[in-house]
Amino acid sequence: MRRVRVIPVLLLKDRGLVKTSRFGKPTYVGDPINAVKIFNRKEVDEIAVIDISDRARDEGPDVTRFADIASEAFMPMACGGGVRTEGD
Q: Which of 38, 48, 51, 81 is the most exposed place for a label (fewest CB within 10 A)?
């Protein structure tokens, strides 16, 4: 029998966790680190964190913010957003 995998997706905007409808009109819903702690207790299989912030062209992904979130995650984590070059 196959087991269902649970993979929540967290959207970040301006360092906060947001909820959107089709990536429009983001509504602040809390701190992403607290959300990760809740998902740790729920024992989810993986987590995806996507930064949808409007960034200047010279800035890449906010790697330090992803590292802060990853330090609390006890599951595999995928990160995305803000990638413009192969170096990012």
A: 38
